[in-house]
Design brief:
Shape: flat
Helix content: over 70%
Largest sheet: none
Order of helices and strands: HHHHHHHHHHHHHH
Strand content: under 5%
Radius of gyration: 25 Å
Number of helices: 14
Distance between the termini: 34 Å
């Protein structure tokens, strides 16, 4: 039996159309390879060298990886990244709650629809300085605590790992709720309204509509939100950390992406070492994403 997907089974006219289609896609594909695949390949190759960005570029094998895993620094950074992942379930759950309330048109939903997205339009650098001021020793939070007679609780929140990381989790969660809400709300809007009308006619209350209809039908959307939030947390917190804590005190709030910047541009131009950390970060993100996709597939089979 002929297969339409094979060029040999196509008529001359269809073959001509297929070649034109591939030629139309080719420029975009070349650009994608140039800006995506090529840098990844170069970083992987440079991770086996002592590259300093200018003169040194000698092959040193696995020395960079041995130094990364053997120094103990990597595990501290990885622990910080995993701690910040606590923001992912918080932002997804809160975003889901806000999306459901907006979809159900609770009183004041039109005004709140414009308010919830405000944090998302603030630059992460500005947000970092805002939280640095708010949680500083003489910041508004400590002023309120002192006014309430809670002098012992007035500390410099960002100079202690035990308090700095929770503040960062709070900041990331607050910043990301708007994005989570708009994506989940978009998924909910794709559900046929007749489903909700039928549920209301059958006497389904708010909780039954949410857990029996909405959640099972947007499992793939929630998975997308979780995957993107994890990737973003691992790769995009540099501006926030730079402006809020600069990775301090010491390395207590430094993450892998900030460490890569630190080694590449602040500590002797160790670009080869930074490339090895970048490769490890990429592998970690791919592994976590694969695990999340497996869990998502299992959830869709159960709920679908």
């Amino acid at each position: 039996m002929n297969k339409k997907g094979a060029f040999g089974a196509l008529s001359p006219q269809e073959l001509k159309k297929a070649k034109i289609a591939y030629l139309c896609v080719l420029p975009a594909l070349l650009v994608l390879v140039l800006v995506r695949a090529y840098p990844i390949i170069v970083v992987f190759l440079k991770s086996f060298t002592n590259w300093d960005g200018l003169f040194a570029n000698d092959f040193i094998g696995l020395d960079n990886y041995k130094l990364l895993f053997g120094s103990g620094m990597f595990w501290n950074l990885f622990r910080n990244n995993m701690y910040l992942l606590l923001s992912v379930p918080l932002q997804v759950i809160i975003g889901l709650i806000v999306a459901v309330l907006l979809y159900e048109h609770v009183p004041g939903w039109k005004a709140f629809r414009a308010i919830y997205y405000v944090p998302q339009i603030i630059s992460l650098v500005i947000l970092g300085y805002l939280f640095k001021t708010m949680f500083g020793l003489e910041g508004p939070l400590n002023q309120v605590l002192r006014s309430a007679g809670l002098e012992n609780l007035a500390v410099d929140w960002l100079l202690n790992r035990e308090t700095a990381l929770p503040v960062m989790v709070f900041c990331v969660t607050w910043y990301s709720i708007g994005w989570q809400t708009i994506v989940i709300l978009g998924g909910m809007s794709s559900i046929d309204t007749s489903v909700f009308e039928a549920a209301r006619l059958d006497g389904a209350n708010f909780w039954q509509r949410t857990f029996k209809i909405v959640l099972p039908m947007i499992v793939s959307i929630i998975t997308y939100c979780v995957v993107m939030a994890v990737i973003w947390t691992f790769t995009s917190l540099f501006p926030l950390i730079y402006s809020m804590t600069d990775g301090g005190p010491g390395f207590e709030t430094m993450t892998l992406d900030y460490f890569i910047y630190n080694k590449a541009f602040q500590r002797g131009n160790q670009l080869g070492y930074a490339c090895s950390a970048s490769v490890v970060l990429l592998i970690i993100v791919l592994i976590i994403t694969a695990i999340e996709m497996r869990i998502s597939d299992a959830a869709e089979e159960k709920w679908g």
